[in-house]
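ok trying again, last paste got cut off:
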Amino acid sequence: MRIFTEKAVLFLHAFPLNSGMYESQFKALEEAGISYVGVDYPGFGRERDFPTVYTIQMLTDIIVSKLSSLGVKRLIPVGTSMGGYVMFDLWRRYRELIDGLVFVATRSEADTDEGREARYTTIEKIKKEGKDFLIQLMLQVQTSPATKKDLKKMERLKCLMEEATEEGIIKALIALAERPDNTSLLPTIHVPTLVVAGKDDEMVTPPQVVKKIADGIKGAEFVVVENSAHLPPFENPQEFNRLLLQFIRKVWG
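nice, full thing came through this time. structure:
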C-alpha cells in the first residue's frame, strides 16, 4: 500500500489468493511513481475472517470504507477473477470514484445453477477434508504450461493460497455463488476500459468468455496475454505491467 495522492490504482485479487499476487505490479508502480492500494478479502492474506457470511456488495462497502480512510477519491480498479466481480459492484454503486477499469480473467455472468451447486459441494468437502485439495486443484486449473514449468513461481503461488483460512475460503465461495449477473451493466460503462485474458486459460475464464466484457463496453480494449492462464498479472508480469502502465498513462496522463 503506497498512497501519496487522492488518485490510486486499486488491486483486487483472485480467489483463493491475496494481494501478494500483484507484487510485481506494486514494484512497477512504485518505480513509475504511481499510487496504489492492494487489499485482501476477509480470511485471505493479512485480513482477518469476517464474523458472518458476506456478499460481494458487503465486500465492496468494506473496501470503499478503507479507501475513504486513506483519502483516496479517484480510482483505477484492477480486478482479477473474483476481483472483477467487486469491480462491477463498484461501478454499479460507486461509479463517481472510477476513472478507468481493468478487468482481468473474469466474466460478467452470474454462476449457472450447476456452477453454484459445485461451489456448495466444494464447501462441504472443505468442511470434511480441509482446504488442501482445493489448493491443488486451483494450482492446476489457474496456471499455464509455462507457469507450471517454473517451480519457484508455482511454490510462491501455493504459499499465497495457503495463507487463506478455511473459513475465509468458505465465505468467499458463498459470496461467489450468490453474486448477481452483471451483463446488463456493460453498456452503462463509459470510462476507459481494458479487458485482459490469459491465452492458456482453458478451465476457468477462456479468452472468448472474457471478451464478452469488452464486446459489451463501447470503446473497450481487449488483449490476450501469452504464457498465462487465469492469472496474467502473476504469470506474465512483464507483459501485464506494460499494458497496465500504458493504460494508466492514457487515463491519468
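cool. Residues 7-252 form a domain with the Rossmann fold fold (CATH 3.40.50.1820). The chain has a mean pLDDT of 97.
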